[in-house]
Write a structure and sequence with these properties.
The structure holds two protein chains of two kinds.
Chain A: E1 3-10, H1 13-17, H2 25-31, E2 33-36, H3 38-43, E3 51-56, E4 59-67, E5 74-78, H4 81-84, E6 99-107
Chain B: E1 2-6, E2 18-21, E3 40-42, H1 46-53, E4 62-63, E5 66-67, H2 70-83, E6 87-91, H3 97-110, E7 113-116, H4 123-132, H5 139-145, E8 148-152, H6 156-159, H7 163-166, E9 183-188, E10 200-203, H8 209-220, E11 230-231, E12 234-235, H9 236-248, E13 251-256, H10 258-261, H11 266-280, E14 285-290, H12 297-308, E15 314-315, E16 322-323, H13 330-335, E17 341-345, H14 349-352, H15 355-363, E18 366-370, H16 375-379, E19 382-385, E20 395-398, E21 404-407, H17 418-427
Parallel strand pairs in B: 6-7, 6-17, 8-9, 8-13, 9-10, 13-14, 17-18, 18-19
Antiparallel strand pairs in B: 1-2, 2-3, 4-5, 4-19, 7-15, 11-12, 15-16, 20-21
Classes of the chains: A alpha/beta, B alpha/beta.
């Protein structure tokens, strides 16, 4: 069982605030997260703060799940090393596919890696 | 002493109304800064304030993690670049035009590929502009005249926090007074903080913006009745109302963000949006503008154009500049493992590039010039700390609407500027006559 979503990444205020402190805990707390809608989380038995693995054709990463204001079937990860572990490098014209990548999300007991470990 | 009209070197807003308190007799201490002489920052957003404060710096040049003198760092950087056949020069959007000019001149001297962060943000917007033009305006015109503001695939509340208040929806203009005189429409894939402020919100599934723009173009031309009952998850009636709002505006502005450029369709999304705005000008005054992220990414395109003829992703290894996004852009050069060294300035590609590109970056010698530690400085062979452009060194930057603004040096913390560092390296390498 897993949740199938379209993954998008983007800026958040917290991500911007800790931009120059990427090895700090605040940055990890702000960026190593995945936001989904409440219904999608409930379907997969995921609770706020649970660790989830996000898998795409480009890679796999573990982040913390949180309820966000996404429509069903869409998940959001703030831009940064965690999002980039699973987003596309096939650019076509120089710009990677940072939004709209097909992904599978499921609950995991694995820990979230630090930015430097990625 | 207070410094007024200080320009914030963080995002493409380049807000020029900040007040810095440098201490002294009449100092109004609102923020304590340890180890520096800025004691207060007024009018800045959280993002700008943190950068201007300039805490948590790299304090000395490093080679393989060992502290060295600037001289040694310059020598080692010059050696690495001289030994390379195809170095990559990347970053530059968070430094001055003068620093980028110096880097391009260095690349011309030794050969290399020069790219700025445009390639991973608004590259598709530049390509679309090359195809169909850009009916745009200045942010001043938006502030004083726009009665309809649209943000499409952009979330300025998070990425450009003062944009709405200074230039658009909530700005008090000469002819339009703040929110009362304007309507705000947001199109996005999720309910962003910006969308929560809007009069109308259109939530579109990822990758379906092109369809909605095409449907709007049909409605603008009066062919709305030919549309299916819904397009991109939006009912036809709402799309027709959206088109009517645009047609009936006195002055409309469409700000678009990387929501359009990073998703499926990229260039086509943007050129479709530009064509829609062009068509709206048959009925009213309408303009379109990319929400450029880094404070001088627009300036990078200007400098690159006037020095090489092309805005980003320029291969200078041959006798003439060669530009082919998808081939000569940083992510592609790295993923194909083409470059054998990299000079990174004021950017953090290890944090912001896809994993395959980062893998190659970790294999080659990297020279990182940056005021702050980053994941790139962590893997770099040579790290050279620099002054924060626009706070500790002066220069020129271009706002997102293409208006050049002079950045000032306010304090000196003893770091050389990016421009000076690049020129020092350049003076130590020989011409590669190819």
């Amino acid at each position: 069982m897993c949740l199938k979503v379209k993954l998008v990444s983007g800026r958040t205020l917290e991500q911007g605030c800790y931009l120059h402190e990427k090895e700090g805990e605040e940055y990890k707390r702000a960026v190593a997260i995945c936001q989904m809608c409440e219904d999608d989380m409930r379907k997969e038995g995921i609770k706020d703060g649970d660790n989830v693995e996000v898998i795409t054709e480009f890679g796999r990463v573990v982040v913390r799940a949180f309820r966000g204001e996404c429509p069903s079937g869409v998940a959001f990860i703030p831009m940064g090393p965690w999002a980039n572990s699973v987003l596309g490098w096939d650019t076509g014209y120089g710009t990677p596919l940072y939004k709209g990548v097909e992904a599978e999300i499921r609950k995991t007991d694995e820990k979230v890696k630090d930015a430097a470990e990625l | 002493m207070k410094v007024e009209s200080f320009v914030c070197p963080f995002c493409g807003n380049l807000c020029d109304d900040l007040i810095l308190d440098l201490g002294g007799e009449k100092c109004d201490v609102s923020l304590k800064i340890s180890g520096g002489s800025i004691v207060g920052v007024e009018n800045a957003c959280r993002l700008g304030e943190r950068k201007i404060r300039g805490e948590g710096r790299i304090d000395a040049p490093l080679i393989d993690g060992r502290r060295v003198s600037y001289e040694e760092a310059y020598e080692r950087a010059a050696e690495i670049l001289s030994e390379s056949k195809r170095p990559l020069f990347y970053g530059f959007s968070s430094t001055s035009c003068e620093a980028y000019r110096a880097a391009i001149q260095l690349a011309v001297k030794i050969g290399g590929v020069v790219d700025n962060t445009t390639s991973v943000c608004h590259g598709p917007s530049v390509l679309a502009t090359q195809e169909v033009g850009l009916p745009s305006c200045t942010l001043g015109e938006v502030k004083h005249r726009a009665d309809l503001v649209i943000y499409w695939g952009a979330n300025p509340i998070n990425a450009h926090p003062r944009h709405l208040r200074r230039y658009s929806y909530a700005a008090r203009g000469k002819f339009v007074e703040g929110k009362k005189g304007r309507r705000l429409i947001v199109v996005d894939v999720r309910m962003t903080p910006t969308a929560k402020l809007a009069d109308e919100v259109f939530i579109v599934p990822p990758g379906e913006d092109y369809k909605l723009i095409s449907a709007l173009r049909a409605c603008i031309k009066g062919h709305g009745s030919h549309l299916p009952s819904s397009v991109a998850g939006i009912e036809r009636e709402r799309i027709e109302r959206f088109a009517d709002m645009m047609r009936s505006a006195k002055f409309g502005i469409l700000f678009f963000g990387v929501g359009l450029t990073h998703s499926r369709g990229g260039v086509a999304n943007v050129s479709n949006a530009i064509c829609m705005v062009r068509e709206l000008n048959r009925f009213t005054k309408f303009a379109i503008m990319p929400m450029r992220g880094h404070y001088n990414v627009t300036g990078c395109n200007q400098v690159s154009c006037w020095l090489t003829g092309f805005p980003y992703g320029v291969d200078l290894c041959g006798k003439e500049p060669w530009y082919n996004p998808g081939e000569t852009t940083a992510v592609d050069i790295l993923c194909r493992e083409e470059c054998d060294s990299a000079l990174i300035v004021a950017s953090d590609p290890v944090a912001h590039f896809p994993s395959r590109a980062v893998e190659h970056l970790k294999k080659i010698p990297v020279i990182d010039i940056d005021p702050f530690p980053s994941l790139t400085s962590r893997i770099a062979k040579v790290v050279i700390p620099s002054a924060i452009s626009g706070v500790e060194s002066e220069g020129t930057a271009y706002r997102m609407d293409g208006v050049p603004i002079r950045l000032r040096k306010i304090i000196d913390r003893g770091f050389p500027s990016d421009e000076e560092i690049i020129e020092e390296i350049s003076s130590r390498v020989k011409w590669n006559l190819r």
